[in-house]
From TrEMBL:
Species: Neptunitalea chrysea
Domain THUMP-like: from-to ranges: 322-392
Protein name (database record): THUMP-like domain-containing protein
Ranges annotated as spanning the membrane: none
UniProt lineage: Bacteria, Pseudomonadati, Bacteroidota, Flavobacteriia, Flavobacteriales
Pfam families named among the record's database cross-references: PG_1098_Fer, Thump_like
Cross-referenced InterPro entries: PG_1098_Fer (IPR054168), SAM-dependent_MTases_sf (IPR029063), Thump-like (IPR041497)
Residues of the PG-1098 ferredoxin-like domain: 279-321
Alphabetical list of CDD domains matching this protein: AdoMet_MTases
Length: 393
């Protein structure tokens, strides 16, 4: 890291130019002797990305930023706080430390945290920032986390891993064994150094595939923020051989929606079906990711519209983990009727078990997003295509 960036004049420049045109800065003559204009732009672009994602870092004077890609890949404060709520004890090692956001929040619940990062530049940044953040119980180690475990005699209360989700080939990785580090391959080593492992994976990972690759899975936490799934968290416990619990969490601006169940419960659940009644419910994104479709109907005593629609209905309003609507009207999907009713209007459109996606529907009927009207394009229990006109409860 270039410590000249920490100069007061440079720091003032960065704060004053967060909304500046970075291209003009790049094309300007050198502004500071020991800091290039490209470095200034890197700091500005990275800091801007932390304003909402990492407000503690953004508001702390003198924070050093890595490149913007590192900021994009790191946990948000909200998800890091949630992860930290899952651990406790005297010692934790983060073997894929990154920018140190998770390690910081772990350090609030754990007596001693070891942050391993193979990228020396990034490790230096975390080591510097931890003092500004008063996280002196974090020890920064430069090097490969797996190699560190192989050589240490320390037995940790927890090991945390956020494996890299890309390999040497282009494209997304869908198998844990293709990630770095290879968690399934190193499970024996990991369990020789701890009894509890917390693994963060991409939300695109198929849960059933993860269960095929991992053993001793105690819990799987599906974490969404404002109805967008951000990460899957796998808690592995040495010698555990039972059925995993799935914990779905949706962190909204105003509340925390949580629903916990076992895989066996979903397999044994039975759904009831009905045509649209007075109220309509759409599960949050975490539940949709979990696959608890039959269980939603039986647990909350609501009816599904169709086996594959994953929309629910009832005559009495209930507290449901997701969005709730009052059904105003149900229309059979006939293009002539839809055109007369909705062409050139505005609505919020959702499609569930319907041949057309919302964008196709909007284009076909010259509609725009927004307004107070909600349209659900779906299929009912009689396999008829319908449009449900609804308003928010």
């Amino acid at each position: 890291m270039n410590k000249a960036i920490l100069n007061n004049k440079v720091q003032s420049f960065l704060s004053e130019h967060l909304t500046a045109n970075v291209t003009s800065i790049l094309l300007s003559k050198p502004l500071f002797g020991e800091v290039t204009n490209a470095e200034l732009v890197d700091q500005i672009e990275a800091k801007k990305r932390t304003e909402k994602k990492l407000p503690l870092w953004f508001d702390t004077k003198g924070i050093y930023y890595p490149n913007k890609l590192n900021i994009e890949q790191t946990s948000s404060e909200r998800t890091a706080l949630y992860k930290a709520s899952l651990v406790s004890g005297n010692s934790l090692i983060d073997i894929t430390g990154g920018y140190g956001v998770d390690a910081y929040y772990f350090s609030r619940n754990i007596t001693e945290v070891v942050h391993c990062e193979i990228n020396e530049y990034l490790s230096d940044i975390v080591d510097y920032n931890r003092d500004l953040l008063n996280a002196n119980n974090i020890t920064c180690v430069k090097g490969d986390g797996v190699a560190y475990l192989e050589n240490t005699i320390t037995f940790f209360d927890w090991i945390y891993i956020d494996p890299s989700r890309r390999n040497d080939k282009k494209g997304k990785v869908f198998m844990l064994s293709d990630c770095l580090p290879d968690v399934p391959k190193h499970l024996e080593l990991l369990f020789s150094k701890t009894n509890k492992i917390l693994v963060k994976t991409s939300p695109v990972l198929d849960i059933s595939k993860g269960l095929e690759e991992l053993t001793n899975v105690l819990e799987i936490h599906i974490v969404a923020v404002n109805n967008e799934v951000k990460e899957l968290l796998w808690i592995l416990e040495k010698d555990f051989t039972g059925v995993p619990q799935l914990v779905t969490v949706n962190l909204t601006h105003t509340k925390r929606e949580e629903f916990t169940f076992s895989l066996m419960a979903e397999q044994g659940a039975v759904s009831t079906f009905a045509e649209p009644q007075k109220y309509l419910y759409e599960p949050n994104a975490a539940i949709l990711k979990s696959g608890a479709f039959k269980l939603m109907a039986s647990h909350f005593k609501v009816n599904k519209l169709h086996m594959h629609s994953h929309l629910y209905t009832s005559n009495d309003l209930i507290d449901f983990p997701g969005r709730s609507f009052r059904i105003e009207e149900v229309i059979r999907f006939q293009k002539k009727v839809i055109k007369q009713r909705f062409q050139n209007t505005k609505a919020n459109i959702t499609a569930r078990n319907f041949p057309d996606k919302p964008d196709v529907f909007k284009k076909q009927f010259k509609m725009k997003d927004g307004g107070e009207v909600y349209l659900f394009l779906t299929t009912d229990m009689n396999n008829k295509k319908i449009v449900i006109v609804a308003s928010k409860v």
